[in-house]
Batch of 2 targets.
Target 1
Amino acid sequence: MRADISPRAKVALYGVMCVLLIPFVFPTWWMVTSSIKPISDIFAFPPQLVPQSYDWTTYSKVFELQPFVRQYWNSAYIAAVVTVGTMIISSMAGYAFARIRFPYANAIFMIVLLGLLIPSEVTIVPLFQMFLKAGMVNTHWPLILVPIFGAPSVFATFVMRQFFVTLPAELEEAARVDGLGRFKIFTRIALPLAKPALASVAIFTFLHSWNLFLEPIVFLSSAEMFTLPQALTQYTDAYGGPMWNIQLAAATLTALPVLIVFIIAQKQFVEGLAHTGLKG
Amino acid sequence: MADVTLSDIRKSYGAVMTVHGVDLDIKDGEFVVLVGPSGCGKSTLLRMIAGLETITGGTLNIGGSVVNDLDPKDRDIAMVFQSYALYPHMTVATNMGFSLEHRGASKAVIAERVNWAAGILGLTSLLDRYPRQLSGGQRQRVAMGRAIVRNPQVFLFDEPLSNLDAKLRVVMRGEIKALHQKLKTTTIYVTHDQVEAMTMADRIVVLNGGRVEQIGAPLDLYDRPANQFVAGFIGSPSMNFLEGKITEAGFQTSGGVLPLPKLINSEMGQTAVYGIRPEHFRLSDHPSHASVPAEIVLIEPMGPETQVTMKFGETQVTGVFRERINGAPGEVIHVSPEVGSIHLFSEDGDTRLN
């Protein structure tokens, strides 16, 4: 950016940025403030940007109406297992595709990449039937196995492969001369150097798993097994209408850990996403 | 320390052969430089010795045993790479001790060896730093430290100075030579820089197109190159070559007749190539039977000497003179080649005729 930007241009720039901020910040602001409004205030006209009265009981009701702690735990441990599993599988597969010469390596990699082109909606029915036969419906196995061996992992493998391709071959040769075998080269040299790529894989895998919605509603049927995105849809009244304030309180609690991690590790997030070539 | 013997070593990638049967005996403690232009196979040869490339044919012997099929780690060699290949996530000390650690050496032994190597290379104060915090020369020294720390049988250097600036290259050249004199470990060093080869080697191996052109001591190669390629490759500025015919009067070229050495292996009337190094021209004040006229094209004063590009007939030649020359382009000077320093090659350049 040019350093000699004029004060007037600076004011204009900040003005534009403030306007652009509204569509990003407003939904979050509305979610948080509405979670503590009585339900009638949410639909008040003119809209209340700042709550006039507070109703903190919505947060306790979140935990009364559903086993929310259990659901929180479900989401957290599934996302953690998926993240670690994907990191292991994608780093090993990415390394193999980048560094090990084996017959048809490129053709196999292309076939693996094709997995990215198939929408999850297409495979969900056959997957459901497979897991049904295996007796895994209404367990967390599908939510763990499908991402680890499915499209998210393929994308992670692609990211890791692209990183390992750029790793200087001489580093590995030096390690070979130093006496390391292939697996030790991977664990002692390649993997520690792949931290930035691994971090970005961890970030997007965790977010993907945390936000997963379609798979849970297909595979899970009891409230005890639900994950957070699915649990949010269950805060309804006797007529099936959403209990907006309680639902938004639950949504706030759901977004909270991601928001906290983002605020703490903002720099790593941005760098990680830049590394994947993803546009935020 | 060990002898290294290469017998008919060959390398091919599919149908393309890049190294055509190299034979080389390297004695224990010797410093051998493999030199040649890009793509001559010198790095491939070194990498085959290291075990980083498979050997297509022939036998490689290190320290009395055939190592063709051994992994690099089992050959007891250490290698310094062009890019240094230091592990970026490890400190200098960890980089240097890494191979010992991997081979199960105790912490005390590792610390002792690392400190010993660091002491020799002046790295003691840098042991806790990471490679990114070091200058090019320091990185180079760490790479050497990593090589010497486990006292291997053979050191291999793959163009280790080519990433350094000219001044540092000269300094490091001296340091590598001094290190070899101290440790007396058999060393094989690859470079494309003939000055490096000349200044460092006990023996030079000149390679071209995957074949050995000549093996010999630096000054032997300089004084008696076996063929036109070696003659042109060794020496800077490089040797001048003139085409012509051997006659009773001398060597007949388009620019005149040049004096010939007495003992030559050829017949009268034979077409040949006349080689003369730039520093083997002498300036003559007056025309004589031993001198030839040359038209000045360019004068480059270097300080201790003057480099003159001259036109001799249709051929442009370079001369280096101790004298300062007050001429201008277009003027004619008289120069005479030193008869004792003339090189005659066959027309195809493959054979030396004197």
Note: DSSP finds 15 helices and no strands in chain A.
Target 2
Amino acid sequence: MRKLTLAIAVIAPMLGHAASAEDTVKIGYIDPLSGGGASVGEGGLKTFQYLADELNAKGGILGHKVEIVPLDNKTNPQESLVQAQKAIDAGVHYITQGNGSSVGAALSDFVTKNNTRNPGKEVLYFNYAAVDPSMTNEKCSYWHFRWDASSDIKMEALTSYMKDTPSIKKVYLINQDYSFGQSVRTDARKMLGAKRPDIQIVGDELHPLLKVTDFSPYIAKIKASGADSVVTGNWGQDIALLLKAAADAGLKVNWYTYYAGGAGGPTAIKQTGLDHQVFQITEGFANSGNQAAMDFEKGFRAKVNMSLWYPRAVNEMRMFKAAAEKANSIDPVKVAAALEDLKFEVLDGGQGFMRKDDHQFFQPIYISSFGKLAANEPFDEENTGWGWHLVSKVDTPQAMVSTTCKMVRP
Amino acid sequence: MLELIVISTLNGVLFGMLLFLLSSGLTVIFSMMGVLNFAHASFYMLGAFFGFQLTKWIGFWPALVLAPLLVGAIGMAVERYGLRNTHKHGHVAELLLTFGLAFAIEEIVSMIWGKSPVDYRVPTLLDFPAFTVFSTNYPAYKIFMLVVSVVIFIALLLVLKRTRVGLIVQAALTHPHMVGHLGHNVGRVFMVVFGVGSALAGLAGVIAGPALVTQSDMAAALGPILFVVIVFGGLGSLPGAFVASLVIGLVQTFAVALNGSLASAFGPLDPSAGPSVLTDIWNVTIAQVAPIVPYLLLVVILIVRPMGLMGTRES
């Protein structure tokens, strides 16, 4: 008898689950909520929940309520697939993930196989931050859509800016040892070599992903190399701890980064006193000057108590709604078709579009530096009193790269 | 280059001393009870989280004293009510108990403090560069960690070698029955040693927490390295653990600093052969394999000298 009661207690909520699944649009958020990637993973979760609330306040998507289902993948590709299967079993048709291209590639592959095997039960993968170029090139998939600029777009823009900075003589590359970090290092070598052959690469480091707790040995090595600039694609605790160790050691170099704005980064930069010497490349930032974006930032900070790291997540969710309305359906197959070549006014202003050839979203890109704020820049970061300041903007047509993707369409 | 050597040596010794704070307790507990305490790194984690919480409530300095005492008390309770009861069922039961305990502690910690890192800061009193080697600052807090570890090491050595308490502990290590016959309460000795060992791990947690990252997977990240240290140094040998801690600390720090690869030693492979698994192996630098170097050392020492550097017994 006791066993029976237990079984009912376990199964009953599951049944309830299945019944309500039809009414809401569930988005499975598969990202690290524990371990070294947790700080950014939790930030992303709060962002998506805020965006879902925003959509629901305006009637949801075609009258359907939007719900974010958080799933912890521990930045592990294997675990991500388990979580993705769990999500699909619970009636999720949309998955979003960002942290770790190793995870992204595995999910893209998984979703593609799932959709081939289960016609009628398709799942879309919305990628907001896994930027390994291979995902929109040789490994591209019809079911994958990426809103973040891929690593080669970012490096192209970053090196174009570095090209015009004559003070750069010696560059040190430090990246995470997996597909994304390796693509950053190869792109940096290739593009710097083409644009500024006089720049010397004095170091090229790969370190374990999200495992290092003390970067001081690496900082000692950067110092010894005599580098004046460091280029890094590090994210999560790997950028925060790297900058923290640099701050402790008093390393004074220029930093060209992808993700210095994440949790802990700004505090460490302020501690080193590197005023406008740390650069970051993003699709938007708090002080971009666009009124709509600044209003959004204000509301977001007031409610979630963090700054908006992922303007691309805003674009992703709003564009999802636009595509569903265009298709007049929340059926993943129809939404996918509607997303192709869809034009969209991005949060920070300017038009972007989802390219049909490879499902990469192209949008204006900004390079900003971190330091003392000017009068017209209202937003600081992590209560440091310092914030991001516009250095250079690359418009959509200039931020495009070619693709080798041969899209297999259903 | 000289600068790199000096800084790497300082970093290596510091990491080594931290490992010693942990491994000393583990190795003494092993030689007394014949049990590898899988939950030892969990006590280190508890120390870090207690340190974080107490720092928030009453400040860093009281936390530095109180947190290890708390962890020590938990350790004693584990010995008194857990290990002592399972002892009669043999070593496997004891091993499984500590194994389960490690998972339980990790889950409890992530339930209370969450799974993401907590904001455990270096106390403002120590938040300044202690000195500058060439042009690199060395943080005062790291010097403080070093001093605490050295003081504890000396104190431990003096207690074990120069006092009556140490004499009984040492005797109980090898001849527990004889010590019992002489009228000493061996059970209590075990309990106190377990408590002190846990407290040392807790202390390591309190001081390492702000410098490294305090989060619920820190025990799992450090645990394996501890076993490397005590096996490398010789199970049950305190001087062995000391030497092994320093060696592992230095090796790991210096491995990061080295750029050598097979390609740099023997020249690049013939490019016409194209990329393959072999080119990956050929081009991988010592810095890239730094995290696995300690485990390689473990394998080598087990082949060459199974009892460890200063161990006395074969098994």
Note: The first helix of chain A runs from residue 2 to 20.
